[in-house]
Design goal:
about 260 residues, alpha/beta, 7 helices, about 35% strand
Length: about 260
């Protein structure tokens, strides 16, 4: 199955150039083209691309709506989306990589430069280094409260006790927070930051803006792009992202 790509740029000529480059690679298909933030969100929900080329200079209905804001929204919807900024604004590079951008192309970029980026993505996908998470059906639950070594997760007509040592990872999915244990899956409206305060920092790590991981459940860690890693766990098919800074922190913990 081809890797779906979305192009977000207000210049039709740039989108055409990118489309022609991408179409030379049989591993990829352009699933959507957008010119502004609002359209990008609509097309993202409709087509679920795995890669997005985004121009920082795109506009929107409000003053602060640009490519950086677009990337923030899209990565909140899917933290594993590979963001590639293709822009004339080199000065935003540091801010872009705070969003864990996969790559940053400065216009006018060469065809070879785009080819290299696509090749890296294709090789990672082929090797299975970063498969997407498998979502399961779960009960919609409300905000959990901390009780010693358990989280009390309240539903509308029920309560679930989650043993904290059994938590494998916690992640953001579609504007909700999902708690994965060895056996179950719980959905809650509470933020990752609130949950992080309830967990022992010696056992759990905020590995990425969208993930909290149980260090004792890690099976292996592999590179995922130039500044990020992917974490695989024992007993679950889901995985998590790990920033380069957190990777260094993790190495120091186990030295």
């Amino acid at each position: 199955m081809a890797i779906k790509v979305m192009l977000v740029d207000d210049e039709p000529g740039v989108r055409l150039v990118l489309r022609k480059i991408i179409e030379k690679h049989q591993e990829f298909e352009v699933a959507a083209e957008c010119s502004d933030l609002t359209e990008a969100i609509l097309q993202f929900r409709k087509t679920a691309p795995e890669v997005a080329f985004i121009d920082i200079g795109i506009g929107g209905t409000r003053e602060n709506e640009n490519g950086i804001e677009c990337a923030r929204i899209l990565t909140d919807l899917n933290p594993k989306l590979k963001i590639i900024f293709a822009t004339a604004h080199a000065e935003y590079m540091s801010e872009a990589f705070e969003l864990y951008a996969f790559d940053y192309l400065v216009k006018p970029f060469s065809l070879d430069r785009v080819d290299r980026t696509l090749k890296r993505i294709a090789e990672m996908t082929e090797s299975g280094a970063a498969p997407g998470s498998r979502y399961e059906k779960g009960e919609q639950l409300e905000k959990p409260e901390y009780r010693q070594d358990r989280l009390l997760v309240k539903g509308k007509e029920s309560m679930s006790f989650v043993d904290i040592p059994d938590i494998v990872l916690i992640q953001r999915e579609n504007h909700a927070t999902v708690i994965y244990t060895h056996q179950d899956r719980y959905v809650t409206s509470v933020s990752l930051s609130e949950l992080e305060k309830k967990l022992n920092p010696s056992q759990f790590l905020r590995s990425h803006k969208s993930y909290i991981i149980n260090l004792s459940c890690i099976r292996r860690i592999e590179p995922y792009g130039r500044w990020t890693y992917v974490v695989y766990f024992k007993g679950r098919t889901e995985d998590a992202l790990l920033t380069a800074d957190k990777y260094e922190e993790l190495k120091k913990r186990f030295q």
